[in-house]
Amino acid sequence: MIPSQDLEAREALLREARALRERRRIPEALAMLERLRDQHPRFSRLHQERGHGLIALGDGAAAIAALEEAVALNPALPACWDMLEQLYRLRGDLAEAGVAAQRLATLQQLPPPIVVAQSLLADGDLEPAEEVLTDHLRVAGETVGALRLLARIRLERGALAQAEALLAAILDQAPDYHETRFDYAMALLQGQKHLLARREAERLLALAPGDREYRKLYGAACLGLGDFEPVIDLYAGLLAGPCQSADEVADLRLWRANALKAMGRGAEAVADYRAALSERPDHGVAWFSLANLKTHRFTDDDMARMKAAEARPGQNDMDRVYLRFALGKALEDQGDYAASWGFYARGNALRRASSRYRQDIAERCAERLKATLTADVFARRAGCGVDHPAPIFVLGLPRSGSTLIEQILASHSQVEGTHELTEIGRYAGELCGLDPDCGLPADPAALLDLTAAQARALGERFLDETRAYRRLVRPFFIDKMPNNFWHIGLIHLILPRATILDVRREPMACCFSNFKQLFGMANQEFTYGLDDIAGYYRIYLDLMRHWDAVLPGRVLSVPYEDVVEDLEAATRRMLAHGGLAFEPSCLSFHQTRRGIRTPSSEQVRQPIGRDGLEQWKHYASWLDPLRAALGDALMEAG
Question: Which positions make up the signal peptide (predicted)?
Answer without folding.
Answer: none
